[in-house]
Amino acid sequence: MVSVPDAPRIENKEGVLDLTQVNVTQNPIKLQGEWTFYWQELLSPEEIRIREAQNGDHDRWIRIPSSWLGAWLDGQRLSGTGYATFRLDIQLSEQDRNARLALRLPTIFHAYKLWVNGELLAEVGVVGQDKRSVTPQLATKLVFFQPKSDRVELVIQVANFHHHRGGITKNIELGGSDGLAVRTNLKIAAEMFITASLLVIGVYHLLLFGLRRKDRAPLYFGLFTLLFGIRSLLVGEHLITQLWPDFPWGLQFKIEYLILCSSGYIITKYFDCIFPNYVSRWFHLGTRIVTGAFCIVVAATPATFYTTMLPIIGVMVVLHMVYLMVGLVYAAVKRMEGALTFLLVSVFALVTVINDFLYYNEWSPIANTSPLGLLVFTIAQMILISSKFTRAASNEERIARELQDTNNKLTEMNMNLERTVQERTQALSAAHDDLRTSYEQLLHSEQGRKKLLAYITHDLRLPLSNMLGYVEAVQAVTALALSQN
Question: Can you give the residue ranges of the 7TM-DISM receptor extracellular domain (predicted)?
């Protein structure tokens, strides 16, 4: 939460916060500054009062919000695991003494108990002095209380044995019950809207890929959006623990880190589908190996180890996005459709992602901006993919119309061809009949010629036979006369 602009910046000093000149009912403030710090001790408010009565003031303080990891105490740097008690004494103004106030508690790493004026008001997880006795849990809380005087004492016991960072790493807010409740509910509603939008868009694109598997862009985009929709349940207001309070802490962290590790590879595959041949083969191979290695480490190691890799994972994700944006610049210079829009929303998403990595490493005061950046990125990509599908559908309709026109022309040509074939068949049939008639006539003529020749032969045979007889008789008489001479 961000306090209103007009609220004065006030910090607690040496475990005391003076709010006598501030109306926190109207102007909620963040309880940042020095808190009294009892390292490796779990003290109740009563035990603290007894110790103060015996030993006087305590002289150890720690700045909140920050992890106790790396803090100096008695000349030694503290580790991330351990347990401690935090205490803050708040002095209220006259306006706030009788008002109903509220504390908005962020996620505290990784189990805690809160007392307000000696009354136990919140307990998340189970606090203990070793790993076996501690049950970690992440959840945001909004607790209400009624001050009985102008003084409010906050005592928080915190234990961490499951993460590399322990302590109060985010701001605790104090304000009027109505104002903080409204702001908290608005924040939860905003996160629910972003989460639901990401989940619906992701499922929609996966179904879209199921209907048309030739184009893999909706597959990778749907996976990317769905996974980050799931991640948004696990960060920020931790909606998953509000919907399912007993959700396993270890599984929650592993899912979040696995999504972060795989995001670079998935977005690279999506980019390659939208702008083919812009991602080199070596980058594909490298991102596959690095992503696989990180996912194996997260799945196989405890959170105390793989959570130390968060800066490295952040660098990996940022390098992926920077590499892809270089390709986007090149595509935008070549005026490829959608490249400029892709580049602008990628820059916006990159800024929000970098801010979140800085925030979770306690280097940025602005919390949980990546879901908003990813939602803007997702909406822009959804428009890009929708326009691509629209163009594909328009092309299909145009091709269908052209095919229909061609089919109509072919049908018309086929009908004309049938008529032509029929006409030609009739012509050939008539020609065949003419040929048959001519053949019959020719055959009849041939038979008449043969009969005529037979008649002529018969008529000429008898005279010729008589003439041959006369010739033979003359030859015989001539031969006889010559023989007598």
Answer: 192-385
- On the 0-12 / 13-18 / 19+ scale of CB atoms within 10 A, 127 is buried
Pair of tokens at residue 174: 């104090």
465/391 Cα distance (integer angstroms): 106
For the record, the structure tokens of 347 come out as 């820059």
Reported as a single tens digit per residue, the pLDDT across 76-115 is 899 989 999 999 999 998 888 888 999 999 999 889 999 9
Nearest to 63 by CA among 173, 167, 158: 167
Residue listed under structure tokens 């862009």: 217
The residue type at 313: I
Cβ-defined contacts of 468-472 (< 8 Å, 24+): none
Structure tokens at 211: 């209907």
Cα 19 to Cα 90: distance, rounded to the nearest angstrom:
7
Of all helices (H) and strands (E), which one includes residue 409?
helix 370-484
N- to C-terminal Cα distance for the chain?
171
CA distance 325 to 342: 9
- Report the DSSP beta bridge partners of residue 87: 36, 155
Q: Are 146 and 121 in contact (CB under 8 A)?
A: no
Q: Are strands 173-176 and 101-105 parallel, antiparallel or unpaired?
A: antiparallel
**In angstroms, rounded to a whole number, what is the distance separating the alpha carbons of residues 269 and 262?**
11
